[in-house]
Amino acid sequence: MNFDIGSFLEKEISKKRDELKEVEKKPIENLNESNSSEQESVTLDPVINVSNGPVHIKNSKLENALPMANPVSERLETRPKRIEAIMNKENHMDMTIDPERIGETNQDILTHVSMQCNLYLHTLLKEWGANSEKYHPELLNETKRNLFPLFVKLRKCSLESDLLISLATIVYHLQQATVDTNEINSAIESYMKLSLGNVAWPIGVTQIGIHERSAHSKIRGQVQRANVMIDEVTRLWITSIKRLISFHDWFLKHQSPILKKK
């Protein structure tokens, strides 16, 4: 029997090569299987689902962030229109205060009276600015600064009810002074009550609701801390109201019998 060792070795070498190739293929197959599993998991839990409806974000961080971002962006986008709407409303608002509405508890009426006070005080400042060369120009800018915190509260309708009642009463008497200059004295009297912590009501207003009873009791003698002593900011805007009363008195006597509405 002839044994060809050369052929035998060649077959063994070929066999080993085939086995080595099989071993080398296994890691690649395992890797492919792993990648396939990951792809399947991604497919089973997609980040964005666009079928049959709006886009749904699966990412929890985005879900938490988007509800916070949308209202802010919407508010910024609508801000110019909101400002324009407010300005249009103010331009068409009648500043003349109805004394029967002072002290009302209805929120819409409170907001309206608060805005009327805001607009009228701004009108007085504009008149002062137009006549600043003739009337205490050194006090005008300081008065504007001191009144700014009050204007913010009036626009937001956040001024304390007792203070708003007294302020609206002062504004009412200032408006009536264009017809009867003696109303200036009533405005000064109301200012004194405001400063001392009492509530100033327009003369002739007799109906006082439940909301106003505590305020009314102050007029009847209840001890009350002076408003000018509450804090420095309050003291400054209250004293600035007195400056506007003095200017309005001067204006009516020296410039015009009627304060033109701006």
TrEMBL record:
One of its GO terms (biological process) is generation of catalytic spliceosome for second transesterification step. GO terms for molecular function: second spliceosomal transesterification activity. Keywords: mRNA processing, mRNA splicing, Nucleus, Spliceosome. Residues 18-42 are annotated as: Disordered. It holds the Pfam family Prp18. It is found in: Nucleus. Residues 132-249 form the Prp18 domain. GO terms for cellular component: U2-type post-spliceosomal complex; U4/U6 x U5 tri-snRNP complex; U5 snRNP. It comes from the Eukaryota. Residues 18-28 have a biased composition (Basic and acidic residues). Signal peptide: none annotated. InterPro entries: Prp18 (IPR004098), PRPF18 (IPR039979). Belongs to the PRP18 family. This is Pre-mRNA-splicing factor 18. It comes from Naumovozyma dairenensis (strain ATCC 10597 / BCRC 20456 / CBS 421 / NBRC 0211 / NRRL Y-12639).
